[in-house]
Design brief:
two-stranded antiparallel ribbon; 2 strands; mainly alpha; Arc Repressor Mutant, subunit A; about 45% helix
């Protein structure tokens, strides 16, 4: 089966983990998050450390340790989380990335460009605070 739009597992883990941590009234550890998201604990650990580096989370070590939100959920949107994992979203002018088009107008009607803009705008409009 082909997916036209697909979120990477890494960005999906990042966004879901951030929502879970924001909703929690206690520290959440890698094992609990990996169970809740049905993903590899090693992949979750790698993603969460990246989010700590980005100053979105605080990491507490030890047997009762885990992760807590450092960023303000009213000021942190899904786009910031997504781009911290995947890099900045770029808006393509041509879905084939060609500098010269043999047609007078885009035969795909700029659908890839428009979908990318809508996706970016959606991520930017979703704040963690809306999911707490």
């Amino acid at each position: 089966m082909s997916n036209i739009v697909n979120l990477s597992e890494a960005s999906s883990i990042a966004i879901h983990s951030m929502v879970l941590i924001a909703k929690s009234d206690k520290l959440l550890n890698v094992i609990k998050i990996s169970e809740l998201t049905s993903t590899s604990k090693h992949h979750v650990a790698k993603i969460l450390q990246r989010l700590v580096k980005e100053d979105f989370l605080i990491s507490h070590r030890g047997p009762s340790g885990g992760f807590a939100l450092k960023a303000n959920p009213n000021e942190l949107n899904f786009l910031q989380i997504y781009e911290s994992i995947e890099g900045k979203i770029t808006i393509p002018e041509c879905h084939m990335n060609k500098p010269v088009c043999p047609f007078d107008k885009c035969i795909m009607n700029n659908v890839v460009k428009n979908m990318t803009i809508r996706f970016r705008d959606y991520l930017e409009s979703q704040y963690l605070s809306e999911y707490i």
